[in-house]
Amino acid sequence: VLPKLSSQTLHALLTSDELWVPSEEK
Questions:
Q1: Which residue, 20, 26, 1, is CA-closest to 12?
Q2: Which domain of life is it from (predicted)?
Q3: In angstroms, rounded to a whole number, what is the distance separating the alpha carbons of residues 15 and 8?
């Protein structure tokens, strides 16, 4: 349960980072 939740949260964070990282770079 914990790993699953962490994975989902991590995925969301990663997606969010990928979304704002390029924006910051640009």
A1: 20
A2: Eukaryota
A3: 11
Amino acid at the residue 1:
V
| Residue indicated by tokens 């910051």 | 24
Overall number of domains in the chain: 1
3-state secondary structure (DSSP) of residue 8? helix
Q: What is the pLDDT of residues 9-21, one digit of tens each?
A: 877 877 776 666 5
Closest-CA residue to 19 (of 11, 8, 6): 11
Domain span including residue 5: 1-26
